[in-house]
Design goal:
Elements: H1 3-23, H2 46-58, E1 60-63, E2 66-68, E3 75-79, E4 82-86, E5 100-102, E6 105-108, H3 114-123, H4 148-162, E7 166-167, H5 171-178, H6 194-204, E8 233-235, E9 262-265, E10 281-284, E11 286-288, H7 289-295, E12 309-311, E13 316-317, E14 321-322, H8 328-331, E15 335-336
Parallel strand pairs: 1-15, 8-13
Antiparallel strand pairs: 1-6, 2-5, 3-4, 6-14, 7-14, 8-9, 9-10, 11-12
Length: about 350
Amino acid sequence: MTQNLRFLKQAKLAAVALVATTQGVFAMGWLFGSDFEGYTPPKPSTENIEALRDKALSDLVFLDGGSFKFGNVPVPVILDGETREELIYGPVVDADRAPVPVDGFYVSRFEITNHDFDLYAAANDLPLRPDRLGGHERQGPYPAIIAYHQAVGFCDWLSEITGQPFDLPTSEQWEYAARSGGHDVAYATQDGTYDYLETLYRATLDDQPHTTHLPDAYPPNPAGLYAMSSNLVEWVKEAWLDTDGFPLADGATGDPDKRDRRVWRGSSHTSQAALNSIYMIGAAGPIMKERRLESFPNDEPLFAPDHQVIYYSYDIGARCVVNVTEAPDTSGFGRPSGPVPDDFPKPFAPLERR
């Protein structure tokens, strides 16, 4: 067995272990200390909210509709010096379910940041999330670690302030976007390969292996979307999966214990680059407020405004989509899929602080 083939099998085993860990309810952020100093949340001023509204619309990337083989598909890998088609990780495509049609839609090029989420919280009289996550997890421009209901609430709020139908992506939309319109690639990098991602990781993360990175730390995929194979795994709309690993909107039909889940897609900074395949998928189970606060009393803000049960884990964030099928030249917002211009605005601009 070649070294590459052994590596692929090890990656699959490690990926399963990562899914099992993330399905649990134990958050490990407390292990890495706190880094909240130097960040002041923004004021919920009209000026700040209007700036966020404009940024949310300009950051949208439009993907033309189409169809694709949803789920794990063979991708080119080099074994024994030869290029072969191999499965990396994820549910194998069921021929009866593929191809999957996808209507045109918009997707944010970045994950939701702490800065943007904290402005949403301030504007809606919600408490800030716990200040106990390590590394950069509570600094403004870094991606926000949020519970499922918080991700839904943020996207709903963007709908209110923009007048556009923001929402969490479906699993099909998320994967279609990560694959730059459904191309057969395993990683959401510029060239679709693991090697490219590994080179970047080794160059920037060796000194800080347990922390997120800036939203635009690495180049985007060919569609112009950032960090869909790194940073945080991301919530999608579905609840749990069927026996083949495909998300189901109404939960699994044969196992009542597996109905109460919320699905995430992608990969996070907590795994090695080789595991950050587009096909990574898993789900977080329910966390009961009373039981959680017995061990983690500072987590009470996660249950605001009045949730007795939440879905959460220490490395899950989100990005929003807009379910509009008209391209930017008709809709008047967003930008087409493709390379990002050098002069395009950065993901974070300082706003008025509290």
